Predict the 3D structure of the following.
Amino acid sequence: MKLLFDFFPIILFFVSYYQASFLINNSFVGQLINPDKPDFINATIIATAVAIIASFFQVAYHWFKTRKFQRMHIFSLVLITVLGSITIFLGNPAFIQWKPTVLNWLFAFVFLGSMFLGEKPIIKRMMSEHIQLPEKVWSTLNLSWVAFFFVSGAANLYVAFYYNAGASDAARMDTWVNFKLFGLMGLTIAFVIIQAVYLSRHIVEQDSTSGDNNDANKNGENA
């Protein structure tokens, strides 16, 4: 459920992009759109505006519910507002297409830096209250997130600007919009599953070790 909430602006971006013609013809949005621009440009402008509004709603809802701001939501909100606004005013999709890459590479840099600047990696700060793991496992887990963020950012960049370069601009934009939702979400789900399997192995090993120690203590007491 949290994953869907985190992808809420992206889902609305996807829906509004493909329903842009309906919004233009059946709402006040049509008065704000330049009919001389290509349809995919206008669709991108509408979808970007909707995603910016959705991001503000996402941050506000999370604050009202928890009285806390989530850093990922804040970073995403700032980036989509800045880059999205440039896309809207210039009518250039390239700026909003850079947003997932900038966000993912920013997270990769922060997670990597936390291994050298803080007392413990960010992933340990986030999860240590719920599970206990050896230090080596925490480091491996943190580095895996660094790799995930880097790969996700690189994949977005490739699809946005290099994949299927011979196709029309509209077709390439459609491909990127589809990847932005299904591709990045698919990568995230796959990574979370792999992480869960990896963690389960070490948690089981730790529990088994604890159990062996308890059995040894009991045998010592009985002796």
The CA atoms of residues 20 and 43 lie 5 Å apart. Residues 1-92 form one domain.
